[in-house]
Design goal:
This protein is α+β, with helices and mostly antiparallel strands and 309 residues long. It has helices spanning 14-47, 64-91, 199-207, 215-225, 228-232, 263-271, 294-306; strands at 100-107, 110-114, 120-122, 124-128, 133-139, 144-148, 153-157, 163-167, 173-179, 191-197, 250-252, 258-260. It binds dinuclear copper ion. Residues 106, 109, 144, 179, 181-183, 187, 190 line the site of dinuclear copper ion.
């Protein structure tokens, strides 16, 4: 099995099939309209050319239904296309309980991935066929963009925040991975391969990993090493929020807002703790900016996700 040739672009994910359907529909509709306009234009240009004996008296009276028809038919058509595309776009970010979360970090000039079971890889991403995945992207330096043409997905990795994208690989094979945001000298070389394998084969691949402990288990150790447990343990004397089952919960903040505790929220709580202070607690949490690597933040979040009652 080799990487797809450049002149063939397979549709290897659910996203790819949906994006292609929109693309070819828009191409068909606009192509048909363009063609129809040019045919009519040519016909009028010839029929009413200077000196032609065509009848120019008695212009047709305005017909209301006809006028309404050509105003509202295209309007409905294009609003329909908009709604369709918006639904597909919204789906990239929809929460999906079945999706495996993989943390991907961009860095001049490589992509690093961390699987939930702890396995790490660089410039390669192994995925199981038919298993929905959610990529949580971050960067250690400048803006990069995670781009897999065969999946029709492209998502920026932006300094200081998490971005996500969700899709399901639907075709086994090896596909190109690129960086699609100019990020310096070796931008053009930044990338690698995405390998989509049958689920059994993928499990075998995971088990031959270089890391025996899951990401959550690594996070559990960090939770102690970095001193988080000193305040966040239920029997701590410090008044800090209990983190049992925090992931996915709605958190009420001191300034009256409510947020869902997702990956971006948990990350911001570690790095920018003064920004979203939980209602009923003093803003005493120190910032861990500069003290946690992207990999450590990913491990801590994975640990918090599994920390359920
Ligand atoms: Cu990273 Cu371009």
């Amino acid at each position: 099995m080799s990487t797809e040739p450049l002149w063939i672009l397979p549709a290897a994910s659910d996203t790819a099939q949906r994006v292609d359907a929109i693309f070819f529909t828009v191409l068909g509709v606009t192509g048909f309209v363009t063609l129809a306009i040019f045919v009519v234009m040519a016909w009028f240009a010839i029929r009413y050319r200077a000196g032609s004996p065509a009848d120019r008296s008695n212009p047709p009276a305005s017909k209301l239904p006809l006028e309404l028809g050509w105003i509202f038919t295209p309007l409905a058509l294009f609003l329909g296309l908009f709604a369709w595309a918006a639904a597909v776009y919204g789906d990239f970010y929809r929460a999906d309980a079945r999706a495996t979360t993989i943390f991907v970090v961009g860095k001049q000039w490589m992509w690093k991935a961390q699987h939930p079971d702890g396995r790490r890889e660089i410039d390669e991403l192994h995925l199981a066929l038919g298993q929905p995945v959610r990529l949580v992207l971050s960067t250690e330096d400048v803006i990069h963009s995670f781009y897999v043409p065969a999946f029709r997905i492209k998502q920026d990795a932006v300094p200081g925040r998490y971005t996500t994208i969700r899709f399901t690989p639907t075709k086994a094979g090896i596909y190109r991975l690129h960086c699609a945001e100019y990020c310096g000298t070796d931008h053009a070389r930044m990338g690698g391969r995405v390998i989509v394998m049958a689920p059994a084969e993928f499990s075998r691949w995971l088990s031959t990993g270089n890391e025996s402990r899951s990401l959550a288990a690594q996070g559990f150790d960090l939770f102690r090493e970095k001193g988080c447990s000193g305040c966040h343990d239920p029997n701590s004397t410090v008044h800090a929020p209990d983190l049992e089952g925090i992931y996915g919960r709605t958190v009420h903040l001191a300034d009256g807002r409510s947020v869902v505790a997702d990956e971006p929220y948990l990350r911001d709580s570690m790095l920018l703790p003064k920004r979203d202070v939980v209602a009923g607690y003093a803003p005493i949490m120190p910032s861990f900016q500069g003290q946690l690597s992207e990999g450590e933040i990913a491990a801590l979040i994975s640990f918090l996700k599994e920390k359920k009652q």
